[in-house]
Design brief:
Layout (H helix, E strand, L loop, with lengths): L2 E2 L7 H9 L7 H20 L4 E8 L2 E8 L3 E7 L3 H10 L4 E11 L5 E9 L7 E5 L2 E2 L3 H11 L6 E10 H10 L4 E8 L1 E2 L5 E2 L5 H6 L6
Parallel strand pairs: 1-10, 4-5, 4-7, 7-9, 8-9, 9-10
Antiparallel strand pairs: 2-3, 5-6, 11-12
Length: 216
C-alpha cells in the first residue's frame, strides 16, 4: 500500500492545505516553499527505510558511535513542477546524486494527450536508492514513462516515487505496472476530470510555482 502522509495527523497537513488553498496559492513563493517543505518531510520518512551502519564520531570531549545511512541515493525530479520538492529532498539528502527529466503532456485536438520526454540526465543507477519526485500523480502516465526511461540507465536497488497529491487511478496504475516501487503521497483524491486533472487537487503545480506557460 502507498504511504499517505495525511492519514497521520502532522504539520504536513497544514502545508498540504495551504497548497490547495486558492487564496494562499496567489503567493508563488509560499507555494514553492510548501512544496519544498513536504519534500523535506518525505525525505525524512524515506530515510527510515535506508540501511544503516555504525560510524565512530570524535567529539571535543570523547568518542561515540552513531548509526548513519550507508545507501547511495539518487534524487530524480520531473521538471518543472518537481524542482521545489526535489530541493526539499536535497536539503536532507545533501550528499545525493541528481537526475532530471523533462516530461510533459502533449495535447491533441480531441482532448487526449501523449507524454513527451525531451530531456533526461542521470548518473548510473546500478544499486542506488532512486527517489523520483513530482508534486502531482494523476493518470500515472508521466511516471510510467519516467520509470521506464530511468531503468534503462541502471538497475536501482530500491525505487521510491514521491508525490504530494495523487489520484487513486494513478496510484493503482503504478501498483499494477511497478509492484516493487514504494509510493509516498501527501493525499489521495478520488476523481480525475475528462482532461485528467485531479479533483479537488490543487491546480497546475508548475504554473502556481513558476508562472503561466504558453501551449507552444
Amino acid at each position: 500500500m502507498p504511504h499517505v502522509l495525511s492519514e497521520t495527523n502532522s504539520i504536513a497537513n497544514r502545508f498540504i492545505a495551504e497548497l490547495r488553498d486558492v487564496q494562499i496559492q496567489q503567493d508563488s513563493m509560499r507555494f514553492r516553499r510548501n512544496l519544498e517543505r513536504i519534500g523535506e518531510i518525505m525525505a525524512y520518512e524515506i530515510s527510515k527505510t535506508l540501511d544503516y551502519h555504525e560510524v565512530a564520531v570524535e567529539t571535543p570531549l570523547g568518542n561515540t558511535v552513531q548509526m548513519l545511512p550507508q545507501n547511495q541515493v539518487v534524487l530524480a525530479a520531473i521538471m518543472r513542477a518537481g524542482l521545489p520538492m526535489h530541493q526539499g529532498m536535497l536539503n536532507y539528502f545533501d550528499r545525493a546524486a541528481n537526475a532530471f527529466i523533462s516530461a510533459y503532456r502533449a495535447h491533441n485536438e480531441e482532448g487526449s494527450f501523449e507524454i513527451q520526454l525531451e530531456y533526461v540526465t542521470s548518473p548510473n543507477l546500478d544499486d542506488q536508492v532512486l527517489i523520483i519526485s513530482d508534486p502531482m500523480l494523476a493518470t500515472g502516465a508521466s511516471m510510467e514513462r519516467t520509470l521506464n526511461k530511468l531503468k534503462e540507465l541502471g538497475n536501482p536497488k530500491v525505487i521510491h516515487v514521491a508525490a504530494i497529491i495523487a489520484a487513486r487511478q494513478g496510484v493503482m496504475r503504478l501498483r499494477r505496472l511497478f509492484p516493487q516501487v514504494n509510493i509516498w503521497v501527501g493525499a489521495i483524491d478520488e476523481e480525475l476530470t475528462a482532461r485528467a486533472y485531479i479533483v479537488p487537487g490543487l491546480g497546475d503545480a508548475g504554473d502556481l510555482a513558476y508562472g503561466l506557460k504558453t501551449d507552444s
